[in-house]
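One such given next:
>
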Amino acid sequence: MSPSLPLPTLLSTPNAPSDPEDILSSSLSLLYPTAAQNQHGIPGGTITYTSPPLSPIKLHLSDPPSEESRRLFAHYVWNASLFLAEAISDGSWFRQLPPDSRCRREDWSVAGQRVLELGAGSALPSIVAHLSPRGPSEETVATDHPGPALMRSIEGNLRDNVPEGRMGRSRCAGHAWGEMEGAFAEGHRGYFSRIVAADTLWLPDVHLPLARSMAWFLKRGRGDGGLGGGQGVRVGRVWVVAGFHTGRERMRGFFDVIGKVRLKVLRRWEVDVDGAEREWADIREEEGIGEGARWVVVAVLGWADEEDETVKGSVTL
């Protein structure tokens, strides 16, 4: 069985795009028949994620005050973020994936985990980490590039959607990738057992700073009860999901640089908006702009010096 509707149908928005860039994005499927829209919403607008059993989650998107902040593209919800939200919550689209899917449902629980989101944007995966029917995270921090408008947007989305009783375990923080000075970075080295990053690979020059942040914050050593040891967790994991909408050649280099910070790929595959799967490939010569917009890469990273369980066929996500 495959999902009855494409992944982007989980989102709805009352706002029609007016900016030329947003109109072009929303028209991709008309220009390229095999394409799917991969960015959703408009700057300063609202968008709602609906995926039972969760109640609808209404998100307010930031309105970038400058061209520099607009180039962060944090004012959209991306398909990669949708995939992570579905995986973490075992949402309606995710539950329809076939039984032999590489996206094993039991692997994606964040129950009892300390979760960090890098490049959070609207913070949808962070919100879902608190609401997951599988059990909420122990603590979740949504981070993105420091900036008042973006931080207000993330903080507001957390406040509006996370139950009041859990707000003490939920917060946002400004963090520029690769910059480890400041109270937040200095106080949370090796702190998080799960790090999630959705659509953060489109610029090659940020790959190494992003990898450095992942390695800085990721937990080392064997799990304990306080970090979800009861869920079979032994070491920290990074979940990276990213689209190919800017070209496969621009994002694939990330996986080459993670060894510099002692991380490695444990599992990696590709998923499209209809739930189809295929092996990861460095190059797909037949892949055009429209086709690439349909797919995301899903990767699980771990420490390079931990025991390689891939030969046993039982990698713990």
